[in-house]
Amino acid sequence: KKAASLEDYFGGVAVVAFTPDDLEVVKGSPESRRTFLDRAVFNRFPAFLAESRSYGRALKGRNRLLRELAPADLREAFDATLARHGARLWIRRRALMAELGPRAAQSFDAIGRAEGKAAYTYRPRGLPDDFDFDAADEASLAEALHTSLGARAQTDLDRGFTSVGPHADDLKIQLGGRSARAYASQGQQRALVLAWKVAEIGNLEAHGNVKPLLLLDDVSSELDPERNAYLMRYVAESGAQTVLTTTDGALVSSAAGPDTLWLRVRAGTVGEVAPVAPAEPGD
């Protein structure tokens, strides 16, 4: 049935998607990691979609006033609204990270290589060093963001955009106590993303009592054999409805069960085919 709104859609079905682009998240931009994080927040807290839209509208309005060099009283009127909506996003992200961060670290350990401990953390930029983000309530977070907006008012005016708030934050991913972006190998970076996705699946099931729909788009060809085997084994054991795409059926065949439907897309035509046998060691 057609969902009446995106909010209804997110509230009615949990989808965990995994694409080759996700494998570049660790070494990508802060924006890519925010999107990566927020996709998980959407799944866990469907109201986050509307809340992030409200923040986006307030941010757009404040930035427009900055570019137009609007009077201070007009700009300051937007600060309180932006701070209120921003605090709500911080609360949502913090709650998600409290659940998902430890799970992702455990998932990384389970992948099976002694590469050091993984850590996934989130702390907003622009807050004082002595501010206890983890313990602050929403009102305190709004007040702290409002103060930061005021302190950076001239800088923002000079640059023409708002430099502090949820839109400027980053998801911190570390391996062995060091920045994964700077020091992790490509294989380690992909293991960190894989661990996050596996943790997200388990977290949704634990808190929503429902298995999410898994959409895995040609990730097997981007993972090394050991990590791909881990992913396929996890998919096979999860019992979740899964849609896999691949250019080589042997890479995903170990995730198949007796009820798996195999389809081939060729020259724009989709047709059912016989199951593909798993690859032999060394193939």
- The percentage of residues in β strands lies in 5-15%
Count all strands and give the number. Answer: 8
Choose one word for the global shape. Answer: elongated
How can the largest sheet be summarized?
3 strands, parallel
| Separate helix tally | 9
* Secondary-structure element pattern, one letter each: HEHHHEHHEEHHEHEEE
Helix content: 40-55%
pLDDT < 50 runs, ≥5 residues: none
**Which structural class do the helices and strands define?**
mainly alpha
Radius of gyration: 22 Å
C-alpha end-to-end distance:
44 Å
Q: Describe the strand arrangement of the main beta sheet, using strand numbers.
A: 1-5-6
Mean pLDDT: 91
Please tell me about this protein's structure:
The chain is mainly α. Helices cover 51% and strands 12% of the residues. The protein is built from nine helices and eight strands. It has helices at residues 6-12, 30-44, 48-67, 72-110, 138-151, 153-159, 180-183, 186-208, 225-238, and strands spanning 15-18, 118-122, 171-175, 178-179, 213-217, 242-245, 263-266, 269-272. The strands form three sheets. The chain has a three-stranded parallel beta sheet, covered by helices on one side. The protein has a three-stranded antiparallel beta sheet with strand order 2-3-4. Strands 7-8 form a two-stranded antiparallel sheet. The radius of gyration is 22 Å and the shape is elongated. The N and C termini lie far apart (44 Å). The mean pLDDT is 91.
